[in-house]
Amino acid sequence: MRRTMLEPDHWGDPEKQRSSVFTPAMANHKIGPVKLLILQGTPFCNINCRYCYLPDRGNKGQMAVETVTATIDNLLASDLVKGPLLINWHAGEPLVLPAEFYRARMPLFDRLESAGIPITHSLQTNAMLVSDSHCEMFKEFGVKVGVSIDGPAEIHDAQRQMRNGRGSHKQALDGIARLQEHGIQFNAICVLSDLSVRHPDKIYSFFKQLGVRAVGFNIEEIEGINTHSSITSPGFDERYRQFLERLWELVEADRGLIRIREFDDAEGRILDTHPRRNSQTEPFVNLTVAFNGDFSTFSPELLGNRSTEHSDFVLGNVHTSHLRDTLRTDKFQRISEEIEQGVTACRSQCAYFEVCGGGNPSNKIAENDSFATTETSNCRNRIKTTCEVVMTRIEDRMRRIGNAGTVEDSIQHIR
Ligand code: SF4
User: Fold this and answer.
1) Which CATH superfamily is domain 30-271 in?
2) Considering only CA atoms, which residue is closest to atom 1 of ligand 1?
3) What average pLDDT does this structure show over 337-351?
4) Which residue from 364, 370, 374, 380 has its CB within 8 A of the most atoms of ligand 1, so it is best to mutate?
């Protein structure tokens, strides 16, 4: 699962969770609390995007009610969930499942609410299968909706295609129209390929005309079964930088009409004076549960993927394992310690560590075949280039307003 608009990638809470039950090697690890629960209602997807990393998207299995119940039982027994919990139905196309699927499962989370844990449901969809009954269900359960759409048809259809090779743009727009008829607000996620970064104006105008007011840009990744990416084309990094610079100008000209997640994130990272916490390098901040009950942690993309060293990243099954017991297993400790080695290497070698926190383990394993590594093409663009562009533009803006204010004043100036 690539980033949604809502996942707790960045927060300023300096709380430090430690556990007394771990081996000496684990003593410095913070464990949870779980803030993001990704539930794979089904691995199946109705389309076949060129850059998809999901290995199992032809599998029509569905998460049984009993698996949801076992997940909730396990969370309550583990004491690993303490505060607000965001549930994201993802890792497959969630709307191939009817509204009744969710109506039978979402009320089960009332047990967590009763235990003082506020729940928010969200899902990330390609929008093609949005029905009136889905829209009613979204309103009934307050589901936050994210739509994956890659800009205008000529860009979107080159990337997001059906199994017969035809583009999916028209059906995505039909689904968006249905959401809008029902008054359902949604954010958009746009995946940037080497084609997209050549067209910032077209992409920005598309979202503006569509009425979208918050967009996140995920860079196409080398991840999972997507072992070849257009971002390896010569010159991509510079084109990505130019894309961001032009996007900043467009956003500034519209006085921030559209919120760009990457700019907001980078501003937050630059301004945050707390040491950065990284939800993907700390165990059990993210918990991913597959349709059959298998679970994993750290980067959501690890579930269902493999590496030379670790085989797979499944740590247990909610029907047969206790979340906390898996912390003592050799498998968990090998993965965790290798991730920690990568974070330590990042801390000692990278000037961006304070705003990054050591990157995404899933990108490290996919690009470098080891967690115990540092730079990836993903962090080079998503973290380093984005922060450089944002910092440069903040400094420009400060010069324009006469160096009279602080960096915070400069950021507010646009809003
Ligand atoms: S930007 Fe890359 S190299 Fe630097 S800390 Fe993050 S993951 Fe490590």
Assistant:
1) Aldolase class I (3.20.20.70)
2) 379
3) 97
4) 374
